[in-house]
Amino acid sequence: MNIREIKDALNASVISDSNGLEHDVDYVYASDLMSDVLAFGKPNSILLTGLATQQAVISAHMAEFKGVVFIRGKKPKDASVKFADHNQMVLLTTNYDMFDACIRIDISRKGKIQSVSDSTDDTRTNEILLSHEFFIDGKDFAGAGSVSTDVKSILKKIGLDPKLIRRVAISTYEAEMNVVMHAERAKVVLSVTPHQIDVFFDDEGKGIPDIDLALQEGFTTATDEMRAMGFGSGMGLPNIKKNTDELNIQSEVGKGTQLDMKFLI
User: Fold this and answer.
1) Nearest to 81 by CA among 7, 3, 6, 14
2) What angle in degrees, to the nearest 10, is found between the helix axes of 236-243 and 162-182?
3) Nearest one of 167, 165, 177 to 136, comparing CA atoms
4) How are strands ordered across the β-sheet holding 13-16?
5) Which of the 8 DSSP states describes residue 252?
6) Contacts with 104 (C-beta within 8 Å, 6 or more apart), sequence order
7) Domain edges within the chain
8) Which pLDDT tens digit goes with each residue over 208-236?
9) How far apart are CA 57 and CA 75, in angstroms?
10) 146-158 vs 162-182: helix axis angle to the nearest 10?
11) If one looks up domain 3-103 in CATH, what number appears?
12) Contact yes or no for 256/205 (Cβ under 8 A)
């Protein structure tokens, strides 16, 4: 990507060296620790940071970065601009926080790749724009809902349709609660392509002996303790099936369950 594309993705304002916006960068490095920038940053990068100081700009320059983007609307009040002008570095500021900025740049970058691919190869239309992994511990009722909350937040920041996000969030929460109640642990993978959202649960647990029975409304294996906390009414899997565009379940008794939920965009 070039710096102008990053600027546009972040709705950023130029603080210094607007003539450098056409420079291409190979990497985006997000950090507030300048020692890490110097140790791990790669040349021809741009730095995202909340540290609006001259030391951040100097560190980026020493690491041979092309510029710096200050997040959360920050602007340096020291000699940063003078230093950047002298060393032909671009300084930008965006109102987005670190997480949002990284997501928006990643989506913009992959969207650019996608648009090029569309003109040459239709098989690329399912290219993953975004992928995240999460982990759930069984019996962790105190932390239950954190993964589905994170998934909902990510999809909202992408700017997807609120009704679609609601269906994904409900399905993910139901699946998360099933892991907490019935499994030892689970890995969750969220993937977003231009046309589909996929949420995949892979748990280690006792498995489902009869999937067809488990999909019937009102069927439950919840304990009295789980019911006392408001869970286990037997609507989990039926509710997931209702809200997904495609639901695939594979389970092995004594080993675990794989739940693949697909939502069309």
Assistant:
1) 14
2) 150
3) 177
4) 13-16, 90-93, 67-70, 45-49, 27-30
5) E
6) 9, 10, 96, 157
7) 3-103, 128-264
8) 888 888 788 766 666 666 565 555 555 67
9) 12
10) 160
11) 3.40.1390.20
12) yes
DSSP characters for 168-188?
HHHHHHHHHHHHHHHEEEEEE
Same fold? 3-103, 128-264: no
Give me the mean pLDDT over the 170-186 stretch: 91
Q: Cα–Cα distances in Å, from 162 out to 30, 166, 169, 191, 198? A: 29, 6, 10, 18, 16
Name the architecture of domain 128-264.
2-Layer Sandwich (3.30)
Does residue 47 sit in helix, strand or coil? strand
Residue whose entry in the numeric block shows the structure tokens 């997807």: 160
Give the Cα separation of 155 and 162 in Å (integer): 9
pLDDT of residue 231: 58
Q: Is residue 260 predicted with pLDDT exceeding 60?
A: yes
pLDDT in tens, 106-152: 888 776 544 444 444 444 445 667 889 999 999 888 888 899 999 99
